[in-house]
Amino acid sequence: MSVVGIDLGFQSCYVAVARAGGIETIANEYSDRCTPGKFLEMCNDLLARVEPPLRSVLEQTKLKKEDIYAVEIVGGATRIPAVKEKISKFFGKELSTTLNADEAVTRGCALQCAILSPAFKVREFSITDVVPYPISLRWNSPAEEGSSDCEVFSKNHAAPFSKVLTFYRKEPFTLEAYYSSPQDLPYPDPAIAQFSVQKVTPQSDGSSSKVKVKVRVNVHGIFSVSSASLVEVHKSEENEEPMETDQNAKEEEKMQVDQEEPHVEEQQQQTPAENKAESEEMETSQAGSKDKKMDQPPQAKKAKVKTSTVDLPIENQLLWQIDREMLNLYIENEGKMIMQDKLEKERNDAKNAVEEYVYEMRDKLSGEYEKFVSEDDRNSFTLKLEDTENWLYEDGEDQPKQVYVDKLAELKNLGQPIKIRFQESEERPKLFEELGKQIQQYMKIISSFKNKEDQYDHLDAADMTKVEKSTNEAMEWMNNKLNLQNKQSLTMDPVVKSKEIEAKIKELTSTCSPIISKPKPKVEPPKEEQKNAEQNGPVDGQGDNPGPQAAEQGTDTAVPSDSDKKLPEMDID
Predict the structure, then answer these.
(1) Residue 539 banded pLDDT, cuts 50, 70, 90
(2) Which residues are within 8 A (CB) of 381 and not within 5 positions of it... i.e. 6 or more apart?
(3) What span, in angstroms and rounded, lies between the C-alpha atoms of 138 and 175?
(4) pLDDT in tens, 474-510
(5) Least confident segment among 197-201, 235-239, 321-325, 335-339
(6) What is the DSSP string of 310-373?
(7) Is the sign of the CA dihedral 500, 505, 509, 511 positive or negative?
(8) Is the separation of the CB atoms in 16 and 4 below 8 Å?
(9) Cα 446 from chain centroid (whole Å)
(10) Is 162 helix (H, G, I), strand (E, B) or coil?
(11) For strand 191-197 and strand 173-179, is the pairing parallel, antiparallel, or unpaired?
C-alpha cells in the first residue's frame, strides 16, 4: 500500500510517496511545474462559483453592499485563502471568523430540530422560515375557456402561511399545484399535487356559487389545500322592509383573494363567530317608526336574504417524484443501515470494554490491588494486559463482537479473584462489627432477664434459654472465623465471605428478635373493686360528682317544700 502526500508551499509544491520500503521524495520533478500561482489558475473555474450565490442573496433580500454590517463565514471551505479573498473583495469588508466553523451549522440545525419537536422545550427564538421555490395554482376557467394560473406563494415568502382564495363555480373543479420556476428545482418534475374540490352546486337561481379555498404552506414547507367551503344564499318571499346590507359583506363579495393570515394553525383562522355571522339573517332596518312609514310613500318590497357555509370534501392526488417500488427499496435499505449501525455500535462497545478493562486493571495492580495479589501473579497478569493492548491496535483493530467478548472474559478470569479479595477486605470488617453489636445487645438482654428486671420479667425462661444458646453459638462462630481470617494471607481467598456473615446476622436476628420483642401483658383491675364501684352510684338525685354541695344539703334542716313532698320516694338498696 502506498500513500501520496502533497505540500503546497509558497514557492513550490512538494510531493512524496510513502511505500512499505520507505519514503520517496519526488519534489524536483514537480517543483518547477506547479507553483501556487499556477495552482490558482487551475482552480479559477471553481473559485468563480463563489460570487454568484452572494449576488443572488443581495438581489433576493433587496439589500445593498453598504447595508451589510458584518460578514461571518463558517464551514471548511472558508479556510481556503483564495475563497476568503473572493468573499472579502465582493463585500469590501474584513471577514469575521468568531464562530466555530465545524459546529456553527450543526448547532443551528439541532436548535431548529428542538424547536420543531414537541418533545423538547427551548427558549423562544424569532425564526422566520421562507418558501425556497415559488408555488402556483392552475385551474380550468369557464369564463376564459381555458386554463388560468396564479402564483400563490412567491419565492422567499414567509412560512408557515395561509391564504384564502375565492372561486365562483357551478360544478366541482380541480386545482393543480406546481413550482413556477422548474429551472431552479433539484429534480425535473415541477408538479406538486392535484386537489379536487367536490360537491360544488349552483345557487337556487342557477347562478355560480362562491367557493372559498384555503391553501397552506406548513412549518415543514409542504403545500396543501387544507379546506374548502361553499357559501349558500337563500331568499324568502316574505313582505319585509328594504334590506340594508353590511358594507363589509359587500366588500367581501368583491374580493377574489382574501388577506393573508400569518397564523400557524390554519384550522383556527376562521372563528365560529365569523361562521355564525355569515349564517345570521340579514334583517331589514327597523330605524323608522310607524308614524314615519305612514308619511312616506310606499316602497318596493325586497326579499329576505340568508347565507350559510357548507364544508366541501377535497380529494388529494399527490405526485410522487419516485415510484412506490423505488421508495420501498430505499426504506428497506434504510432499515438495513440502521441495523448495521446498531451492530457496529455493539461491536465498538465490546472493543472499548476490553480496552477499558486493560487500563483499569493495569493501574489498580500497582495501586489498591497490590496487597491482594502475589508478585508472580501480578507480573504474569500485567504481561497479559500488555499483550492484549498491543493486540487491540494491531490484529484486534477490526474483529467481530464475539471475539472481544471472549477476550474480556479471558481477562476477567484472571482479574476477578483479585477484585473479589479486595472487595471482601473492605466489606468484611463492617459486617463483623455489625454482628458483634447484635451479640452484645442480646447478651445484655439475657443479663437483664437473669437479674429479673421488670422490662423482661414477662419473657418465658425456655425462650430466653434458646436466645442465650443462639447468641453463644454466634459468638463462637465469629471468634473462630476471625482467628482463621487473621492467619490467612491477603493474597489468598478469604476464609469467610461477606455473604456468610450476612447470613449469620440474619439467622441470629430471626431467632432472637421475635422472643425479646414480645409485649408485656396488660394488668387488669380486680373484679370486686369494679363491682363496688358500680354499686356506689348517685344518691338523692345528685350527679356523678357529689362535692361540697352534697354535704351542705345533708346538714340542711330546712323543711321541704310542697313540691318536694309530692315527689315519690326513692328506694335505695
Answers:
(1) very low
(2) 361, 365, 373, 414, 415, 418
(3) 6
(4) 999 999 999 999 999 998 999 999 999 999 999 999 9
(5) 235-239
(6) EE--EEEEE--SS-HHHHHHHHHHHHHHHHHHHHHHHHHHHHHHHHHHHHHHHHHHTTTTGGGS
(7) positive
(8) yes
(9) 61
(10) strand
(11) antiparallel
Among 149, 150, 151, 313, smallest CA distance to 228 is for: 313
Q: Which cell goes with 337?
A: 443501515
User: Grid coordinates in use for 129?
Assistant: 422560515
Neighbours of 121 (CB within 10 A): 8
62's enclosing H/E stretch is none
**H-helix or E-strand spanning residue 281:** strand 281-282
Give exposure, 481-510, as e/b (b: 16+ Cβ within 10 Å). Answer: bbeebeeeeeeeebbbbbeebeebbeebee
Rounded to 5°, the CA angle 409-413-415 comes to 110
Phi and psi angles of residue 373, each rounded to the nearest 5 degrees, phi first: -145, 140
For the chain, helix, strand, coil in percent to 5 are: 45, 20, 35
Sign of CA dihedral 437, 440, 446, 448: negative
pLDDT of 33 reads 61
Length of the chain: 573
**Distance between CA atoms of 549 and 539, rounded to whole angstroms?**
13
Place of cell 387544507: 226
- In sequence order, the 6+-apart residues with CB closer than 8 A to the CB of 468 are 446
Question: Nine-digit cell at 474?
Answer: 454466634
Cell numbers 358594507 correspond to 247
- The cell for 78 is 472558508
